[in-house]
Amino acid sequence: MQQQQQQQQQQQQQQQQQLRDDIFVYYPEKKAYRLQNIGYTLHDNGSICVVYFNEPKKLNRWTRNCIAEISLVLEHLNQDDTIKAVVWTGKGNRAFSSGAAWEINPSFSSTSTVRQAYQAKGLMGGSDDLALKNLTLSFLQFPKPSICAVNGLCVGGAVNFAWFYHDIVIATHTARFMYPFASLGITPELGSSLFLPKTVGITRAKAMFLLGHWVTAHEAMAFGLLNYVVPPEILKPKSLEIARRLRRCSQTSIKLTKQLVIDGLGGMTQIAKVLDRENSTITKAIQSPETMARMAAFQAKHATAKHATGTGTRGSSDSNSSSRGKETTTMKRSKKIKQSNMKRGNTRYRCSAQTELQSAAAELRSRL
């Protein structure tokens, strides 16, 4: 009898720890939703939820759909009373997140009706919320214990997400962080223009924003941006250990303490004003021809990486050893045609990207 109970408990634990993609959206009405870019596991009878950015082959990039799903997941976590503590991390061992994808013509899994309902409640930003104001404020007001477990490289907005959205931040010793803002021609967002100088000082914050150099996990720890640096195999166990400790604490105390810390930064009203300034500034940045050119080059570079299939052709087997590994005339001609087509394709892509950016800038100007 005891053995059967143990087996049942083990089966329940295995089921809970399987990666899931089912949540509820709550607005304009409660209904089931299946996640596309995010997954999660449940632990300790569902009291701890580990959320994963779930596109490891693409370095867990933040597409527009992924950003929307972060808002949907956050509200699901808030609404589910069974969940007492949350861990956010990335799937795989290469990246926590490579940051914004800046994709052209983004597609969404959620309906526009759902997104508009979440935007109306301030839980999700619209197309003009480039600094992710609503998402930032939602995380800062999240009442439950939240832990970030950085499992690899972390770039751009994902850096701010990791360092400033949560209560405890853990990283593997192989994790590294980088702001690419100046190289892309954009400006700080997600409240980082306030949070980073407050944490590391003005001089160091400017260097990190402007130079865009990589910051190691140990450096981030020394700057006061991380609580723990651990080996990769310890990251998940350490995160769950802290989640269990926080779950056992007074939830009233945790909620009120988090509010006091935010008040010490000027409160939600002041932080909202900072985010408004970030939105205004990043809008000015993307309207500049220089930024448009840089973003178009970024898009073209990633398009080339996506469509490239190889760098050479293997020579066929031949009885003459001197001819092995050499390309035939036909192969060389085929390779030249392919390279020419890729070059023309990239030119068209740059034009398309610049047109899209100009359209986005015109739309943003009309909204301001």
H and E order: HEEEEHEEHHEEHEEHHHEHEHHHHH
Strand arrangement within the widest β-sheet reads: 3-4-5-7-9-12
Mean pLDDT: 85
Radius of gyration: 23 Å
Q: How many DSSP E strands?
A: 12
Distance between the termini: 68 Å
Structural class: alpha/beta
> What is the strand content?
5-15%
Parts with pLDDT < 50 across at least 5 consecutive residues: 309-368
Summarize the main sheet: 6 strands, mixed
What is the global morphology? Answer: globular
Helical amount: 40-55%
Describe it for me?
The protein has helices at 2-16, 64-79, 112-120, 133-140, 157-164, 181-184, 192-200, 202-211, 217-222, 232-248, 251-264, 267-287, 289-307, 329-367; strands spanning 22-25, 31-34, 38-43, 48-53, 85-90, 95-97, 146-150, 153-155, 168-172, 176-178, 215-216, 228-230. It is α/β, with parallel strands linked by helices and 368 residues long. The strands form three sheets. The protein has a six-stranded mixed sheet with strand order 3-4-5-7-9-12, sandwiched between helices. α7 (192-200) crosses α8, α12 (267-287) packs across α14 and α13 (289-307) packs antiparallel against α14 (329-367). The protein is globular. The relative contact order is 0.10.
